[in-house]
């Protein structure tokens, strides 16, 4: 289905239909993505204030066969928010739909509009003595609609699940302007097909999420954080098992960090205080949130003693204060920034079955060593089998020198991941960056069904054209 | 789309294609449902041994336009497993696909075929020192494929979620015989649309689930159970909040029970030992599973003391042994049997937003009181906002005397539920019993999308015809 450019006449008809300040000038931020990989084009930015206005925009775009790029906080890392070519689309920004419509503390539920900023949801939950556990680096600018559209992950997935698991219901505008009212506050409702999960993670290609019913959690009575030096990734896995045997769901985060991460921090962000004098090859950050009657620092001490006795850990440090907890987390959270300053040749957001993480790390390292001289920074959410596996130039060399190897590196890593039954995109999504990977690695029947669903929901192909699935034109 | 009868020639062609013992005689159990509401018809029972055989059956049925009724343990309560009229279908029983293909204790994952009996999954998980938390009364005969197809609930949803939340990936045979390979062991995988959740809860109308990757949990270090007398449903809700503030995710089950339940047990199952001399109007069963370092009985004592001080509970008893825990649970679990022996006029499996449970109970009671003389047994999974709200004849009267009121009672309850934003089927599904309710109470756009999905996945309408959505013929 061929799309039309969004003409000045079309934009004018939108202006007349919306009767308000919904039409915005196109600003550079609407056409960029954080890594600067490409630049988009658009005839206008439309920022509706109500669900009905979103419906009007989609209905008119559908009739005119004009592409629509849904836009949240613009923090996505796979180009899902930027259309670089094809017929000129409009950008539909949710930035004016930021209301938290309701908080129900005794139900552990919050109803928020898609444009609400993640950090504001945290604040609102905290004000009700509750926790909204979705925690990602971009929380200060990411909007919940985008988090839902991409099924965002983050550091608390081990305990609380991905964004999908934090959503009870959605309000969605379909490409033809119909509104699906599914803002359920129900924990159990078996009355027909689960539509919500089809929209979550579909990256704006099936409709526009305008509001969501979100799950809150009780705040843990006490929290604690430790860093423990492990002898290997497989030792880290055993430690995770031990931690869960001790504390069950109380383990909120379990992050694996490699020496390279500390080296990059020392080199590029010397103001960050590092926890070890001598850098260990592998260590983990364990974060726990426990019920009343348990002292988190003591529970971590007990875990450490057990693990030390079993030879799983050789040293460690347990935060004795909130300041120290924050400092430990700072080490983990600043690694991506250090990476950015060093400059990766190729970055990978992969997952493999948990038990195969050590094999992946070993085999990927061997394969890359046979291809050239690299530094590898492998770190991430071990508890979820999700690693950020980033390949950098050898010390003293620049990534330009490796330009012709970039694709081979990426293919090598992703082939190995596929071989192990893993995913080439654990938490970032497909966007426009990984469309070819999806075609290459996706189950063929899954791809057929996805194309069928796209054609059913969006027969004119106006929704985020070229994201997730290749455009037909 | 009109379906054809499964003719002797068609059955014969299946027999030739399958080369094995897949063809079974039609037994009465395949045409019945537990409450005896109706009887099905079928030309044959096919029990394949492999996914490929399931694919062959569906491909041939699709070509011949013969209806297929997927059959698990036959324990569903809404007639999803029994087709009473229309063109004669075949029953596709998963009873020979019972393998547990793999258990990965360190990944907390189990891969099981659809015909595996729920109880056997519990046993296999326990053998690996893990927990498969789906717990329903029919666990001895229900099969996991049916649990997935109906998104079964049960008593542990508060802590572990519905069956949907316990599934990481599926293998599904589509109506045309294609096989979707999605048996993922990944906790994070954002590579395209979420198809799994479309099949879960679709009650066999979009395809046949043949295997699943299931989430296991660490076993809690210690478990405990208490019964506490509350002054009202709203007091019970406050107690739930307090319990979660004390123990977070440690609260595994929180069941509300009314005096009527105890009265029915005393009347019909006098061998069950009842916990209170004088029956309280309302009490709750609280089950907890806690991490190391916490004594569950002590934690429940502390909770009780706090709740007593706040006036939320007036009395209670905390299990001091496993035997006593089992005895407490026996009270809860035998209530449905006592109900069956008393004989309900109308039974309802409803949910409402948690905070509206007290309002629902009050208003439903008032409405029914104005309609006649009934006994109401209201009990269930308060933590999920899910109540079994069952209406019985007044003492000394029979349900025959109320036959003409049955429909009005059901409509009254379901209208009120809808008014409160609730669900007319919290955990049992739609099946054939509640198709009219779905049409009456479902969001119109949701229904349109469901019909569109059904037509896309199953254009000939062979899959479980008349379940969830009305047949077209």
Describe this structure in words.
Chains A, B: Its cofactor is FAD. Chains A, B: This is FAD-binding oxidoreductase. The structure is a homodimer of 473-residue chains. Chain A is of the alpha+beta class. Chain A folds into 3 domains: 8-95, Uridine Diphospho-n-acetylenolpyruvylglucosamine Reductase, domain 2; 100-218, 2-Layer Sandwich (Uridine Diphospho-n-acetylenolpyruvylglucosamine Reductase, domain 3); 222-419, Alpha-Beta Plaits, CATH 3.30.70. Helix content of chain A is 33%, strand content 21%. The first copy, chain A, contains 14 helices and 18 strands. Chain A has helices at 8-18, 51-64, 118-127, 144-149, 157-160, 196-199, 233-247, 259-268, 296-309, 322-342, 357-369, 406-419, 435-441, 444-457; strands at 23-24, 45-46, 68-71, 90-93, 100-104, 109-113, 130-131, 167-173, 179-182, 208-215, 217-218, 222-230, 251-258, 282-290, 313-318, 346-351, 374-381, 386-393. In chain A, strands 5-6-10-8-9 form a 5-stranded antiparallel sheet. In chain A, strands 1-2-4-3 form a 4-stranded mixed sheet. In chain A, β17 (374-381) and β18 (386-393) form a beta hairpin. The radius of gyration of chain A is 23 Å and the shape is globular. The model of chain A has no long low-confidence stretch (mean pLDDT 96). Chains A and B meet through β9, β11, α7, α9 and α13 of A and β9, β11, α7, α9 and α13 of B.
């Amino acid at each position: 289905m061929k799309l039309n450019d969004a003409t000045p006449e079309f934009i004018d008809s939108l202006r007349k239909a919306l009767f308000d300040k919904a039409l915005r000038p196109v600003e550079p931020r609407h056409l960029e993505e954080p890594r600067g990989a490409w630049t988009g084009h658009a005839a206008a930015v439309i920022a509706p204030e109500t669900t009905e206005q979103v419906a009007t925009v989609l209905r008119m775009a559908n009739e005119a066969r004009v592409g629509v790029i849904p836009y949240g906080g613009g923090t996505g890392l796979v180009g899902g928010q930027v259309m670089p070519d094809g017929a000129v689309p409009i950008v539909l920004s949710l930035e004016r739909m930021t209301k938290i419509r309701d908080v129900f503390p005794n139900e552990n539920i919050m109803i928020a509009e898609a444009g609400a900023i993640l950090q504001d949801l945290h604040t609102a939950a905290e004000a009700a003595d509750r926790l909204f556990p979705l925690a990602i680096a971009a929380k200060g600018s990411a909007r919940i609609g985008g988090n839902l559209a991409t099924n965002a992950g983050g550091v608390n997935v081990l305990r609380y699940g991905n964004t999908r698991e934090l959503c009870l219901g959605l309000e969605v505008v379909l490409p033809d302007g119909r509104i699906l009212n599914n803002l359920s506050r129900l924990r159990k409702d078996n009355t027909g097909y689960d539509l919500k999960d089809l929209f979550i993670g579909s990256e704006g290609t099936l409709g526009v999420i305008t509001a969501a019913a979100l799950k809150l959690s009780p705040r843990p009575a006490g929290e604690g954080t430790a860093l423990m030096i492990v002898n290997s990734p497989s030792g880290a896995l055993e430690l995770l098992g031990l931690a869960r045997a001790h504390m069950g769901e109380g383990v909120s985060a379990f992050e694996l960090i490699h020496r390279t991460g500390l080296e990059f921090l020392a080199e590029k962000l010397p103001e960050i205080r590092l926890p070890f004098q001598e850098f260990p090859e592998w260590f983990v950050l364990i974060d726990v949130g426990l019920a009343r009657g348990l002292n988190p620092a003591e529970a971590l001490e007990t875990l450490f003693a057990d693990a030390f006795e079993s030879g799983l850990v050789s040293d460690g440090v347990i935060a004795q204060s909130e300041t120290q907890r924050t400092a430990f987390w700072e080490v983990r959270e600043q690694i991506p920034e250090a990476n950015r300053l060093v400059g990766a040749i190729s970055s990978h957001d992969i997952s493999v079955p948990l038990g195969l993480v050590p094999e992946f790390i070993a085999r990927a390292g061997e394969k890359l060593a046979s291809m050239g001289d690299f530094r590898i920074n492998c770190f991430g959410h071990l508890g979820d089998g999700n690693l950020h596996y980033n390949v950098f130039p050898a010390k003293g060399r620049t990534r330009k020198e490796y330009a012709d190897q970039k694709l081979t590196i990426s293919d090598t890593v992703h082939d190995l991941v596929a071989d192990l039954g893993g995913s080439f995109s654990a938490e970032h999504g497909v966007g426009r960056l990984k469309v070819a990977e999806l075609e290459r690695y996706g189950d063929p029947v899954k791809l057929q069904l996805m194309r069928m669903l796209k054609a059913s929901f969006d027969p004119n192909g106006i929704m985020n054209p070229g994201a997730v699935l290749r455009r037909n034109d």
